[in-house]
Structure formats: C-alpha cells, structure tokens
Specification:
Length: 544
C-alpha cells in the first residue's frame, strides 16, 4: 500500500468513526480484531450519536466524496441486502457536489477540443448550469448554426481519486468477505467490481453519447420520450456537447401543475416508456432518478418526458425478457407454481431447488400483498419480495436484474409522486400480455417469417447447388466409411493371425523346455527355434 493510499485510508476511517459507522459491525467473534482496532483509535469519537445509523451512513458517504456518493446510490438499489432504515437513507443520496472553477472547466474543454472555445462556440458561461459528482455542465451557443448547447466536462484529475478509492474498496470487500457471516450471499467483491465497471463507464462521454443516440433513435417517432441531440463532432472521452433542453424538473410538482400537466397521463407514459425500453428495445435508461428526467412544457395534455445522462443503460437478452415477462404475468394471475418453475427453468435458482417449498414461500409472501387494492400495491416492492424470497433458495445475484429493479423503483417512485393513485399493475399488465402474445402466438410466427424472409430470399438461388454439394459430400463420406470399415476388418484379421502365431510359438517354447528337462536331445532345439519363428511371424502380423 502506497503512502497516499495509507493517508486516504486514514481519512476514510476517520470519517467513518466520526459518524459511528463501527456500529455496523455484527456481534460475531470473527470481527474481534476490527473492534479492538477501533478501540485503539480512542481519540476519534462518534460526534453524531443522536442520529439514526442509516442517516449517519448517508452523511458519511456524502462527506467522503463523489466515489462514495455513487457507491451509496448504487447500494440503495440493493434493498434485498439492507434493512429498510438503511436502504431508505441511502436512497436519499443526491449528487450535491460543489462545482469546480469555471475557468478550469474551460481549460479542460479547450484541451479536449484542441483550441480556444471561441473557435466553435459563442456565449460560453463560466458559471456552471449544474454540477455532479462526475461531471459539470456549462451552456454555450454553436457558431455554425446558433443552436443552444450544453458542454458536459469530466471533473479534472478525478480518475486517480476514483482508482485510489476503488483499490481501498476492494481491500475492504475482501476483508468483509472473510469476516462477515453472510458474505457468500452478499458477494462484496463482486458488488465492488460491478460498481467499478459502472463508474468507469460513466467517465466515458463518448459511451454516453452513443447510448443517447441509440435511445433517441428508438423513440424518434414517439411523443412520449425525447432525448437531446448529441453533437459528436465536438465530443470526446472527457467532453460531451449536446442540445440544450428546457423542461420542468420532475420533482417540481407545483410547476407541473401550473403548466396544466395531465399528471395521470404523465405517470402512465412513464410506465409505458419504461416497459417499451425493456421489452421492445432491450435497451433501457438505468439511471432515471429525478435529476435526470424532465417534462416538456409543450402539449401538457399529453406530456412528453425528457431523458438526460444516459451513461448507465441496461440490456436484457431474449431469454431474460421472456422469463421476466412470464414471471410478472404469473404474479398477476397468482400462479405461484409457475413463478417457482420459471425460476428453476431460467437458472436463477439451483436446479435441485424444492419447487413445492419454493411455491409455498412465494405464496406466503405475496398473498397478503394481494389482499390490498391494486392501487395500493407497490409493483417494485413485489419484485423485491420475489427476489428476497428467491434469495433464501440460493438465488444468485443477476446484475441485469439489479439494474432493472433499480430503474423500476425509480419509475414507480416518480409515477406515484406525480399521481398517487397510479395503478402500475393495471398499466403494465396489458403491455406484458400483448408482448407475450407477440412472442408465442400466431403473430410471433408471422414476425419470425418476416424477419427471416430476406435471408431466405438471398439463399434461395443457392439451394440447388447446396443440395448437390450435400449429396456429393454424403457419397464421399460413405466411401470413406466403407474404406475405414475394410481397414478395420483387415486389422482384425491380422490381429487374429498374430494371436494364433503367438499361441503356437508359446506352446512350442514350453514343449522345448519340457523336452530339455527330460534330457531329450535334438527335439528341444528344433521346438525352440520353431516357437521363436512363430513369435516373429506373430510380431510381424501385429505391425500390419
């Protein structure tokens, strides 16, 4: 560990102890050493004993800086790992980071562009429009066409800080995995690895640009979601230039109502957009917290969502989509046996899982939920209950489902904040049923034929030649098989002959020994020579 690592480790330890996070250590003999180490740092006291443990954790992460804020945000999506009083506090973490100097931001942008900003932009504002843990945003105008844009630049020297903190996180995760009783299920090292990948992806502005372009194309003809245009000619790994949008922050309920926004329609559109991304496109915005989504001022009767910051996106393969949709529909119909079987079939739980016991466990958790009116049931929390129950049956963490779960909770939270009477079940069920009918019904066959028709049309002229080549290859294969069979039979014949010669040879040599022991002259020598001759013939036959 380098001196800078040691210094950072002490800073982290000091903040953690100042907020009393040593209370998170379980009462277990295996954590005796960390507890003794904590007592040795007697001069660092808990200065916030009046606050709850969850609040202290949140405040400590905020003080530790951007990397830890992001880590807390990611962990807030893992409600299956934390009790509610901690998970709820982690969910409150926001990217409320002090901005860095606008002149430094301008210098960073000019390094990326390779020249003065004035070459390409007018009206650059050194006062940031927004500042987050990873990047900072400034406004300007494009010289070539006068369009208003925003320039998003990565914070200077953030990569070494991130790398140092990630190294420490890995060390802490390895320590936790050795001492924490439930480490196998929590998989702390894998969690840190997942976080590292997500964070490094966010540092690549070109990746965010590509994700935004894809999402914009997917909803190009839709009035429900708008994604700003990206100007990739001016963008690089550390700088992103995109269209400036004007919208109402989704958390500003008063402004939305003042604009005459249809809150019910807005909430339903959010659900439709989410399920369209997941099931139609297999490409969904996975960071839809209130800071990344706005609502257009235009057309308040059928309001349009605006999505920003596509640094984190999720994807599902065909099998995951199918199993997920079937799981949700089985829940709608309270078919818990189907849910249990789907978990086994998908490989989410081990194949030797007791399906009967799993079905009973799911029913025990979910039936009390269904006693409530549908409008009062949290769709996201039903999914959480499913994962929590499956965890008891050794369900492994599915990273793609963790992102999906996080996004679903965001979407439902936004929807209920805007329209508390939102019945997400009623909105989602027809969408899922229609999607499933297109996957397994007659329409699915038609769609499959349509998708394969161009390929078949391309290959159709080649079919006679392919058929002829196949028949010719079959004939050649039969000839080779016949030749191999003949060689095999010939080999067996020589092996039989070799065994015969070796047997005669052995018999003659034994006879020679017997005759010699009885003092009979001439015959023993003749018998021995003849036996050796037959052995040589047998050896020669073996070689053939």
């Amino acid at each position: 560990m380098t001196p800078s690592d040691c210094k950072r480790l002490y800073q982290i330890t000091e903040v953690q102890l100042r907020y009393g996070l040593d209370d998170l250590l379980p009462d277990d003999p295996r954590v005796k050493v960390p507890k003794m180490a904590r007592k040795s740092l007697f001069w660092i006291k808990n200065k916030h004993p009046e606050k709850s443990l969850g609040e202290r954790l949140r405040l400590a992460l905020q003080e530790l800086g951007p990397v830890w804020i992001k880590f807390g945000q990611m962990m807030s999506t893992r409600r299956d790992l934390f009790p509610p009083h901690i998970a709820d506090q982690l969910a409150l973490l926001q990217d409320q980071v002090a901005p860095f100097d606008g002149k430094l931001a301008k210098t960073q942008m000019e390094q990326e562009l390779g020249g003065p900003l004035e070459t390409w932009f007018d009206d650059f504002d050194e006062t940031p429009l927004a500042s987050a843990s990873i990047a900072q945003v400034h406004t300007a105008t494009l010289k070539e066409n006068g369009r208003e844009v925003v320039l998003k630049v990565i914070r200077p020297d953030i990569l070494p800080v991130i790398q140092a903190d990630i190294r420490l996180m890995y060390r802490m995760a390895h320590t936790i995995s050795r001492f924490l009783p439930d480490a196998r299920r929590l998989r702390p090292v894998e969690v840190v690895h997942e976080y590292e990948k997500t964070l490094l992806d966010e540092l690549d502005m070109m990746r965010e640009a590509a994700n935004s372009i894809q999402l914009r194309r997917n909803f190009e003809d839709s009035g429900m979601l708008y994604v700003p245009e990206m100007f990739t000619d001016y963008s690089s790994k550390k700088l992103l230039v995109m269209e400036r949008i004007y919208g109402i922050t989704v958390s500003d309920i008063d402004a939305l109502k003042a604009n005459g926004t249809d809150m019910k329609r807005l909430s339903e559109n959010a659900v439709t957009v989410f399920f369209t991304q997941v099931f139609r496109d297999s490409f969904f915005h996975a960071d839809m917290h209130p800071g990344n989504v706005f609502v257009s001022y235009e057309n308040p009767d059928n309001p349009q969502w605006i999505a920003l910051d596509c640094g984190i996106v999720g994807t599902l393969n065909r099998e995951d989509k199918r199993y997920l949709a079937e799981n949700l529909l089985a829940f709608f119909h309270r078919d818990y046996r189907k849910v249990a079987e789907l978990h086994v079939d998908s490989g989410w739980v081990p194949p030797d899982t007791n399906v009967d016991g799993f079905e009973v466990a799911i029913r025990t958790v979910c039936e009390p939920i269904f006693e409530k009116p549908l409008g009062e049931i949290s769709f996201g929390h039903v999914l959480l209950n499913l994962f929590n129950t499956a965890r008891r049956f050794n369900m492994e963490v599915q990273p793609q489902l963790v992102l999906l779960q996080k996004t679903l909770l965001y979407v439902e939270g936004l929807g209920r904040q805007l329209y508390p009477q939102l019945d997400l079940w009623d909105t989602a069920k027809p969408f899922l049923e229609d999607w499933m009918s297109r996957q397994v019904g007659p329409q699915a066959v038609v769609e499959a034929v349509k998708s394969k028709a161009p390929f078949w049309a391309e290959k159709l002229p080649e079919i006679p030649e392919l058929l002829y080549d196949s028949l010719r290859q079959g004939k050649a294969m039969n000839q080779r098989i016949d030749k191999l069979y003949d060689n095999f039979m010939e080999s067996r014949r020589y092996q039989g002959l070799a065994r015969f010669y070796l047997g005669i040879g052995a018999t003659l040599v034994v006879c020679s020994a017997i005759l010699f022991s009885n003092h009979i002259e001439t015959f023993p020598a003749v018998s021995a020579v003849t036996g050796v001759t037959f052995w040589l013939l047998g050896w020669r036959a073996c070689r053939k």
